[in-house]
Amino acid sequence: MAASVATKTAWKLQEIIAHSSNVSSLVLGKSSGRLLATGGDDCRVNIWSVNKPNCIMSLTGHTTPVESLRISANEELILAGSQSGSIRIWDLEAAKILRTLVGHKANICSLDFHPFGKFVASGSLDTNIKLWDIRRKGCVFRYKGHTQAVKCLRFSPDGKWLASAADDHTVKLWDLVAGKLMFEFTGHTGPVNVVEFHPNEYLLASGSSDRTVRFWDLEKFQVVSCIEEEATPVRCVLFNPDGCCLYSGFQDSLRVYGWEPERCFDVLLVNWGKVADLSMCNNQLIGVSYAECTVSSFVVDLSKVKKSGSVLHGLIRDDKPLIQPIPTGSSLRRIYDRPSTTCSKPQRVKHNSESERRSPSSEDDRDERESTAEIQNPEDYKEIFQPKNSISRTPPHKTEPFPAPPEDEPLTVKEATKPSQTVDIQTPLPKQENPDPVQMPPIASSTPVSRAEPSVIPATRDQPIGLKASDFLPAVKNQSQTEIVDEEAMSQIRKGHETMCVVLTSRHKNLDTVRAVWSTGDIKTSVDSAVAINDLSVVVDLLNIVNQKASLWKLDLCTIILPQIEKLLQSKYESYVQTGCTSLKLILQRFLPLITDILAAPPSVGVDITREERLHKCKLCYKQLKNISNIIKNKSGLSGRHGSAFRELHLLMAVLE
Fold it and tell me: Where is this region: Disordered (predicted)?
């Protein structure tokens, strides 16, 4: 062993509480790798400096959760798209709203800044792509072709093309000058989550939920290679600045790829969960992820990462001789032609006068009044965003690499910090005026947040509820004990295994029972059997199927389902609440007018058995809906996604009051 202290290749840098409710989006600045923006269900956009605990600026104005974010190349502007389809552009230097763009009819799923001009692109759940001129506050062009949500947009380095990735399994390339589709790349078998242009060559990379990374030649419009041995969906990709390799972020891992031929240079285990974005600075890769209201940042030392070479690392499907990689600087493909008269970074949208920042309409003035930029940390704001004359300014002005912590006891795999308080590298908070004897983890927040146990268990959790990982790990009796007997380790791993098998076997048996009845075509009887089992998880599974086909719903089905919905809405599990809200919304939209009309109708003359049965069912449904309306009313004051869902239901049920 060498005498010098070994340092880690990957480690956890910091964890912060970013919002008072769930985080719904986040993005890193690509120029400095030090600027972080987070969007939340609290409808705010919070700006952070990576590895600093306090929020620099909080941007308000959106009225629905912020679903997509993008920072401009010079890190002076930020785009934020909301669940309602509106887009807001803030000037971070001036700390004010610049533009509000309205036109999409559903969630904004993706955004990007044009590399040279004053344009931005937006992709939405409404399947449309819009190109906006931010100087005129207007939509320049609309691109139609996708059939599902547009998840990622990227302009080409020369600014002539726009690549789009969507849930319809396709990648499309659009010609901005001609205003039409150039080519549609097919081959993915699942939603495409991300696309990225090579920094120099006519090459495009795409990552999908089908767990593959594909490389596309933009001259021949054909696939160059496909890497398909991964175990989890591809969440984000980033080319090395010199174009020698592609970094791909997966669940708890980073992989480094080459494409001619397809090969994996390196694999690193990084405990970042579902990583959301990557950036580079000072030969370090910064990765960020979020869960509930917390955001975590991680660092990978790229000087220790293999980026090229003929010796393959990790997965590779190679039964043919390896072709030596093309040396950096030479290319098999055409190079982008960038305008020589244009700066490499977009100039700020600051022209003749202050009035040019404003739209002449009164609506924009109202948006400016409603949208605010609250500077919460003046020192960091002045350091990062205060206007400077230097064209090459990037926040912060000079950055140093993050210091790597010392390596743990000898490891066989390059590995990031595991989530334990004894190992996490945290940045200490500034001194608090109120001394507290209890040591708290270094958590920053834009608003005061209590750390009580959540009343609703999120559907996106990555840990089992009610179980501690430490219960399944052998206890270390002393620090020097580093090896564990195989039998002891296996006995610990198997702890509780039989109980879990019994639970899953019972669940499977119950679902088989419901499925057998369902196959007869009698939906009502299958729902009855699911309710009779007295297991809400089975009811949720069945409702998730029925909710997808509104034609299956009948009035007699509502009488059975509504009591179950009442239980689901009061469940502590987020997925149960979501399913309950979806089912209730369907019932209200399809049957509430019918129920109120039948109850308000005058009594019929004579005997009408069918009408009497329908009236009885309507009375029963009305009574159950009245009970549920009290629950909805009490929960409509909640913040975030649940609050907005309950408020929508409360409006639909207003006729009951």
Answer: 327-440
